[in-house]
Amino acid sequence: MADLTSTFCGITSPNPFWLASAPPTDKEYNVRRAFEAGWGGVVWKTLGEEGPPVVNVNGPRYGAIHGADRRLLGLNNIELITDRPLEVNLEEMTRVKKDFPDRALIASVMVPCDAESWKSIIPRIAETGCDGFELNFGCPHGMAERGMGAAVGQVPEYIEMVTRWCKEATGLPVIVKLTPNITNIILPAEAALRGGADAVSLINTINSITSVNLDSFAPEPMIDGKGTHGGYCGPAVKPIALNMVAEIARNPATANLPISGIGGVTTWRDAAEFLALGASNVQVCTAAMTYGFKIVEEMISGLSQYMDEKGFTSVAEISGRAVPNVTDWQYLNLNHVTKAVINQDDCINCGRCYAACEDTSHQAISMSPDRVFTVMDDECVACNLCVNVCPVEGCITMKTLDKGEVDERTGKPVGDYANWTTHPNNVAAISAE
Amino acid sequence: MSNSPMTPAIAAGRLPAESYTAQFSDLHPVLDHHEALVASDRCYFCHDAPCMTACPTSIDVPLFIRQIATGTPEAAARTIFEQNILGGMCARVCPTETLCEEACVREKAEGKPVEIGRLQRYATDTLMAKNAHPFARAEATGKTVAVVGAGPAGLSAAHRLAMKGHDVVMFDARPKSGGLNEYGIASYKAPGGFAQSEVDWLLQIGGITVEHGKKLGEGLTLAALQDDYDAVFLAIGLAGVNALRAEGVDKEGVLDAVDFIADLRQSTDLSTLPVGRNVVVIGGGMTAVDAAVQSKLLGAQNVTIVYRRGKDRMSASEYEQELATSKGVQIIYNASPVAVHGNGSCAEMEFEFTHEVDGKLTGTGETFRLAADQVFKAIGQTLVGAPEGIKIEGGKIAVSATGRTSMAGVWAGGDCASGGEDLTVTAVAEGRDAAEDIHASLMEG
Predict the structure, then answer these.
(1) Number of alpha helices (DSSP H) and beta strands (DSSP E) in chain B
(2) What letter would DSSP give residue B85?
(3) Closest by Cβ to B108, choosing from A348, A351, A354
(4) Given pLDDT bands bounded at 50, 70 and 90, which one contains residue A433?
(5) Distance between CA atoms of B93 and B124, rounded to whole angstroms?
(6) Considering CB atoms only, which of B41, B45, B50 is closest to A69?
(7) Residues 372 to 401 of B: which have CB under 8 A from any A CB?
(8) Closest CA to B169 of B229, B227, B213
(9) Min CA distance, B109 vs chain A (Å)?
(10) Which residues in chain A are contacts of B112 at CB distance < 8 A?
(11) A336 in contact with chain B, both atoms CB, cutoff 8 A
(12) Which of B153, B208, B239, B205 is nearest to B411 (CA)?
């Protein structure tokens, strides 16, 4: 079994699977259970300033999007930071860290945007023995209206400033958690770096309304006839998170900034994908909230098997492995020609590929009277839609034409690598010559 | 009273009185809301769906299942009823395993089709429970149509004609409407008086009157109907039964399976219905299975179906055969009846084993006997009472694809008409299609 030990901005944990700052990490009881279940680290539910804690709504906090068989694909919440007194949280963190010294324990923090607030609370939290801090600049609801969370995370200058305050207040690693509710993730990431951040973690939740009650005409979750936007997470947000992680990892200025990948990690495979795109570890929340802490067993065994099969001896070997292959559209090889191929032995004759291609794509699949579906290579543009709508995994695949083979659609042989930057239709390319 | 399955000869009340309800309860209870959502979730919404093609009434299965999945079972029901006004009964009695569910791509993919029949029942039951009729009549045309026979074909035709604005009078020989739905199918397939409530619901369309106790040849003539109505639709079913060619078939205890099933369906107290300790059913169709299973459920100790050909030739589906054996019925293949033995009443039935030589069924010479207090003949029904002069083909009234007979102004459909399998769903399709043709023909002139 592969060694899953993970080192993330100097913090070591027995595996790269951490629980994100969220309801599952709100108190000692849960965190103990998580560590007993095998989680490598925990980012404690965000701590606020001393004094009367925030309050939560007393109606529903979550809304959901379901897929087939009521599988939870997306979750939205309007919960705030911890609503328990700071002192209670600190006592519990101290006890847990003492009993689980090998696990990572990170304190997530969100206090008002002034130097005094941050500089006074950071050293106090450090006394718990925690391994580092995560600055919550992400929460899109409730706290943002009070000038915290995403309200800070959406202004790069504020990120830099607060990060600097925190770095001045502690020698422990400082991780900046980024909000996806911005237009360009590079800007807040670079700001964190300038402020001295040891790492970034992303993504926090996405502003969202999951559904509308069509009887009451109000958003869900509905509180006394009203609803508000909440933070969206779960498998549905993974593609957005992967892209943002990759953007930071391939940006020269932030390429060496450690990343904790967050956003819809549900299986070992999701985790490996985040690692490959540049993350050093991952944080999980919705999957644990859906299935319980036990899922970490599958994550550990799956990642371990994958590493053994690939011959990887450390998690770090996976980290960033796919980053060189993330490029801009203009550099994609326009002479890479593929064609869809339907395996007739696997085909169950549902005709979804036909409907998709005929109605919405390129009319490149024929249907015989006895329901045999065949790709017409002279029409197929290799869009992949048939592959994606086919209910049988592996039934439709894309065959790559070798160099020199004739593409029946264009009548031209497959040529050498060539991209848009040199394409004759590209006015910019021609004028550059 | 202390009768039991062991009580000799023919006796009623073989089971404790309180057990009959459970014995004859719904074979497949209606799906609950959660089950329906899970089941509907499995549909792939196929293009030009094979299930729809396999359905004799061409119900748009993917559409109605999607309507269930999206929380509008009433709309799903309407989709079903537009094609098949007896969609409620068909959901219960259709051999889906040889129709839509056999064609389902998930049958090919996983050997587990989408539960189309049960989903159809979920949708139709939901709408019918509201006692809502989803269709309204078109403006009156002033045309009148006589429908002879209030079984599935007749009801289907009458409804479609009434919907088109014609006035319909239905005639039926029996005291209740429904035909085989009421008198002919196993009671556990449609318990709770469903056949009658379905008829009542169907008649809510309006414009249909039903006259019971009226039969062609007995006070009713085709000529008179042709004079009195603008068109006639014959849906008289197959009222006769084939004769069993064996010695001693006149002995007491040798009965027609269809009569036994009808008695059972009309019985208000199944504990009073006599059944043999040893029951032998001769035949290989659904009627044989229905009679055999219900004999067993009434408390018969031994029930055996004897079919003269092999398992693969049996017209009852594999599913029906398995249902019978799961209820404790024994099936003997490749044996044909030779004689009924007994002193006045039947006591034993003698058979000879058969094999097929060059496609021809021949006896092997080897015989055996089964104890038989009661013998049910289920070897097929025949057309009786067809009007004089109408063209007959293969023992049935010859019809075109739209149900036209050899006589102008006279259509026919259902079991009495040529073509199609003798299924409820086929009868519904034929009644509907004939009605459309009648309508087109009436509106031309």
Answers:
(1) 17, 21
(2) T
(3) A348
(4) very low
(5) 14
(6) B41
(7) none
(8) B229
(9) 6
(10) none
(11) no
(12) B153
Mean pLDDT on A221-236: 95
Mean of the per-residue pLDDT values for chain B? 95
What was the pLDDT predicted at A429? 77
Q: Are A93 and A182 contained in the same domain?
A: yes
pLDDT digits (tens, 9 = 90+) for A127-149: 999 999 999 998 777 777 888 88
The answer to whether the CB atoms of A392 and B109 lie below 8 A apart is: yes
Q: Which CATH number belongs to the domain containing residue A387 in this structure?
A: 3.30.70.20
Confidence band of B445 (pLDDT split at 50, 70, 90): low
Which residues in A lie closer than 8 A to residue B49 (C-beta atoms)?
351
pLDDT: which is higher, B190 or B159: B159
Domains: count for chain A = 2
pLDDT averaged over chain A?
Answer: 95
**B244 close contact with A: CB closer than 8 A:** no
Give the whole-angstrom CA distance, residue B90 versus residue B126.
15
B443/chain A closest Cα distance in angstroms: 35
Structure tokens at B153: 């074909």
Domain enclosing residue A31, as ranges:
6-325
Instruction: Decide if pLDDT at B165 tops 50.
Output: yes
Domain boundary among B129, B158, B174: B129
Closest in B38, B47, B109 to A351, CB measured: B47
Using the predicted structure, report yes or no on whether residue B79 has a pLDDT greater than 80.
Answer: yes
Q: Is A268 on the interface with B (CB under 8 A)?
A: no
Write down the residue that tokens 């003698």 correspond to.
Answer: B350
Residues of A in contact with B105 (CB under 8 A): 348-350
CA distance B433 to B403: 7
Is residue A428 in some structural domain? no
Range(s) of the domain holding residue B55? 33-129
Active site residue A139: yes
Q: What is the pLDDT of residues B179-195, one digit of tens each?
A: 999 999 998 999 999 99
Chain B residues in contact with A350 by the CB 8 A cut-off are 44, 46-47, 105
Question: Which candidate from B38, B47, B106 shows the least CB-CB separation from A69?
Answer: B38
B165 and B44 assigned to the same domain? no
Contacts of B38 in chain A (CB under 8 A): 69
Would an 8 Å CB–CB cutoff place A1 in contact with chain B?
no
What is the chain B residue with the closest CA to A358?
Answer: B47
* Closest-CA distance of chain B to residue A346, Å: 8
Closest CA relative to residue B156, chosen from B205, B96, B211, B219? B205
With 0-12 CB in 10 A as exposed, 13-18 as middle and 19+ as buried, what is A345? exposed
Q: Which residue of B has its CA nearest to A347?
A: B109
Structure tokens at B42: 């499995």
CATH number of the CATH domain containing A63 = 3.20.20.70
**Same-domain pairing of B111 and B202:** no
Interface with chain A: mutation pick from B44, B61, B70, highest number of A CBs within 10 Å: B44
Contact B151, B183 (CB under 8 A): no
Q: End-to-end alpha-carbon separation of chain A, Å?
A: 55
Q: Which residue has the tokens 């007491």?
A: B252
Task: Sort out which chain A residues have CB atoms less than 8 A from B62's CB and list them.
Answer: none
Q: Are residues B37 and B117 in the same domain?
A: yes
The reported pLDDT for the residue numbered B441 is: 97
As given in the structure block, the two tokens for residue A300 are 């550990």
Q: Where are the beta strands (DSSP E) in B156-277?
A: 167-172, 208-212, 215-216, 219-220, 231-234, 240-241, 254-256, 275-276
* Distance from C-alpha of B174 to C-alpha of B259, rounded to nearest angstrom: 13
CA distance A381 to chain B (A): 22
CB B277 within 8 A of CB B263: no
Cβ neighbours of residue B205 closer than 8 Å, sequence gap 6 or more: B133, B135, B136, B137, B159, B162, B163
